[in-house]
Amino acid sequence: MGHRGDTASCLPLLLLVLLLLAFCRGRVVRVPKGPLIRVVGTEVVIPCSVSDYDGPSEQNFDWEFSRDTDFVRIVSTWDSTFTSEEYQKRVGRGDIKLRRSSNDAVELVIRNIQPADQGRYKCSTPSTDATVQGNYDAEVQVKVISDGLSVSGSKGRSSMPLRLSEGDSFRLRCSAVTTSPEHTHLHVTWQIKSGSAWRDILSLTHEGKFQPGPGYEERYRNGDIRLDTGANDTYRLSVSQASSADGGAYRCLVSEWVRGADGSWQRIQEKSVEIASVSIQRTALDVVISTSNVSVTERDSLDLTCNITTDRSGIFQAEVMWYFSASPDDTLADAQLLLSMDRDSVVSDSTLISLSHVDRNSYRLLVRDVDVEDSGYYFCEAAIWVPLHNGSWHKVVERTSAPVSVVVTALEPDYDVFLNASKTPKFSDDPTELHCRVTNAQDTEANLRFAVSWYYRQRLRSDDVVADELLATMDADWTLLPGDRSRERIQNGEIIFSKKSADTFSLRIQWTSESDRGDYFCVVSAWSRHRNNSWVKSKDVTSAPVNIFWATQDYTLTVEAVKLKPFFVAGHTFEMTCKVSSKNIKTPRYSVLITAEKPLTDQSSPNGTTRIISLNQDSVVRLEDWTDQTRVDGVVLEKVQENEFRYRMYQTQISDAGLYRCVVTAWSPGGGGMWREAVNGLSNPIQIDFQTSGPVFNVSVHSDSPTIYQGEVADLLCIVTMEGMALEPDDMSFDVSWFAVRSFALDREPILLASLDRRGIVTQSRRNGSSDISLERISPLEFRLRVHGCEDHDFGNHYCVVTPWVRSATGVWQREPDIRAKPIFLSVKMDVLNAFKYPLLIGIGLATVIGLLSCLIGYCSSRWCCKKEVQETRRERRRLMSMEMD
């Protein structure tokens, strides 16, 4: 029990320690870890920063200095009167200043530091925190030592001029020594100044590592750039294979480094001395081909000479390479290397090309048995090599000559080309065949092949110039390359190109159309085989054109419609014939279409014309817009003779009234067994008119309550009335369809709600909401639409469309025109009381349950959670009761 009590008593102490650790964060002022060792006369920069502070983001800083115990104020970022009298002149001259690097950091800058500036420097920040926490100042020790670094050139000379030739080597020396009392290291860097800025060449760092400058890494790895140390603290720079980029002023830059208290290296001073001014004399080299543009006949020899001149003296060797290029603008990477002669006069191997060294400065290229592919541009490239001290060779200069144009003239064969037509069309779709022959050929050996290209030119009556259109090309390998005009027809087999013999080519059009009329000609190309077994075109010969033309006359087509019966009544059979006659059409066939022009009151054909039935040129019958399922077999179209067609319509209805015509299309045989449309014809109209004295029907829509609330039932009545002759209920029937337009105005497409046909079958459309629809007949002339459980989207204009059916005296049902009623607007309102009744009851119930649950939680908490652990004595309880009594 005692240990448990000790543990319980330690818990509050542990929590207090944790809270103190959590809230002990405060302002932190930092300066570098000292001592800072600096050289007299140099510029000193001491940074100071603050973190973990409150208040504004930009903080102020005060700097003070002490040699012994007391601090003297130097400079402040916010108080201009802070500076003490002994520092006012140096601060005014700018020898001592503050340089802000960020909102929470500054740098104290002291120019030309002196031994009297050695001491402690304190950086302070005024408090902007809500509570005083952390440190508000920091000190750093600065130690000023004497300048013991000296840097000089070779033998005391500050700078000397050097004149070198390209490819030579040179060495430069500088001396650097320090007598500093501290343990310091030297960092030596050789630099060059070829423009306005100095660039690093090679460094020996204070850590004893060699570090090449940018652009000198490769030369350092190859050993062309070296830095060596010698006696008397000398540092020697060696440069091999000097180029023009090595010209300029050279200096030796030496910096002194010391390791700080934190282990990092700090540069305390830097000195330099210019050693030499180096100028590199570039080696002059001129490369010229002795001849200008050359023209050579095929199978002759090509002779070119490359002359080189240079101002280089002493020992050197020349290297020469000959190149060939198809374009004068090609680079060496794009050109083809023909032959090369290295500095040891070794020539690369070639069969038909030779390279010889005529004299010290002349190199001759000889190409034997040239052909057309050797036409192009030739140029030579020369390079000068000089020996180095280690026995290797170095290339000092390289030049390329201007290109020389060489044209190799081909030995053209001699031949003629003749084009004739073996078949010409008399009518459209007749075949056409042309033959292109090569005649009088002088050279028909195996090294010569003929290729042909076929062209078409449209012939116009005016003098307009028409471009030639390529039909196809058969190349030297006899591969057919179709043109854009005939590509598709070649793939379909409508145009055939072939080679009849070694000197004869043919073009055949299987079915010539009117667009094929015009001039045709062929171009025969001669291709010669060259020494690399490639084929090169040497000559083109064009034939005289052949005109393909035939006289044409306009197609004519006449169609006459005849009604076989002078008159008839509804329910009888309507019959008409269509007789066709044509001219200037080759072996025509006809397709027939029967159309009816109904009155504009017919809702099924808004444009007034209905396509009923058709018969194509292959005598295949098709129902077009005839959709009456009860009369699928009610129309018949048949071919009586080659140019006569008969149309029958059984059990005619009153709704069939209108004008009937025959639309005839004449077809003629086309290419590939296909039929081509020639001309169209329209017959005279045949009228079907029924003289009836039957009743006249009217339709209206009625509702006792067009405005209802959501969830109620809407009743809409469609009432049919008759005028004129009265009919028995069994002699009439109706198709009823209900539509709705979901807008206040009739500016949207109507939506079909439900329909009831004359046989009593009800059809409903799909619905998205929860409301339902029922449609029923309540009397012979009244039809009721009910919308159960109306929703807000059931509003809109509602109307019905009625199609009357009347039974004639012969017992045949006749369809009357559709009748549309005027719409009635149905408005659906929301019942506010019912809409909020259930949410209100649910809210009251939830509030009551939450209140009871809160009371229960409070009672349980006061009963068990807040009960004291220590038991009271009876005496204490009696004392409490006595106090209550008082």
Automatic annotation (TrEMBL):
PROSITE patterns: IG_LIKE. Its main location: membrane. Keywords: Disulfide bond, Immunoglobulin domain, Membrane, Receptor, Repeat, Signal, Transmembrane, Transmembrane helix. GO terms for cellular component: membrane. This is Prostaglandin F2 receptor negative regulator isoform X1. Pfam families: V-set. The chain crosses the membrane at residues 838-859. Residues 12-133, 166-274, 285-382, 413-542, 695-803 form the Ig-like domain. It comes from Pipra filicauda. Coiled coil: none annotated. The gene is PTGFRN. InterPro entries: Ig-like_dom, Ig-like_dom_sf, Ig-like_fold, Ig_sub, Ig_V-set, IgSF_V-set/TM_domain. It is a single-pass membrane protein. Residues 1-26 form the signal peptide. Gene3D superfamilies: Immunoglobulins. It is found in: Membrane.
